[in-house]
Design brief:
Elements: H1 2-83, E1 92-93, H2 99-102, H3 110-118, H4 127-130, H5 136-142, E2 146-147
Parallel strand pairs: 1-2
């Protein structure tokens, strides 16, 4: 009987060892699956963060361009205000104003003032666009400040 006890003991030890190995293998497999899931989640989060950062950068570029455009418009207005003689009121007559007076208009520099003078006379202020002297957008900036008297 003693031999049977040893045999049973060996069988039990072998079965326990086999069970432990099987459990260890199962835990190891589930850990790899868990690790793989965590890796996929981290990858997805990184992709989302990257897309958000790219969108934010694009929005920042657009905002910077708009700010630069507004800054240029403000600077043109300040220059026009500095060049406008005190006491002179608008509107500026496109047919009789001097080059210096034309330069007091928003966005009008010396070259544009010369072009305005070269294309005189004007029946209406809108003729600046019709004659190709200024673009419709440029005309919108000065429309309230000019006349063709």
């Amino acid at each position: 009987m003693r031999r049977t006890n040893w045999t049973e003991l060996l069988i039990r030890v072998a079965a326990t060892l086999g069970l432990c190995v099987a459990l260890f293998w199962m835990v190891s497999c589930s850990r790899h699956e868990s690790d793989r899931r965590l890796q996929q989640q981290a990858q997805q989060a990184t992709v989302k963060a990257k897309m958000a950062a790219q969108k934010a950068a694009a929005d920042a570029r657009v905002a910077a361009q708009q700010a630069a455009q507004e800054t240029r418009a403000i600077a043109a207005g300040v220059r026009a205000g500095l060049h406008t003689p005190t006491g002179e009121a608008h509107p500026v007559d496109l047919n009789s104003a001097s080059s210096e007076r034309l330069e007091t208009l928003p966005g009008v520099n010396a070259a544009l003032a010369r072009r305005i003078e070269e294309h005189r006379p004007y029946a209406r202020a809108r003729d600046l666009v019709r004659k190709g002297v200024v673009s419709p957008q440029e005309y919108q900036r000065i429309a309230g400040d000019v006349t063709a008297g």
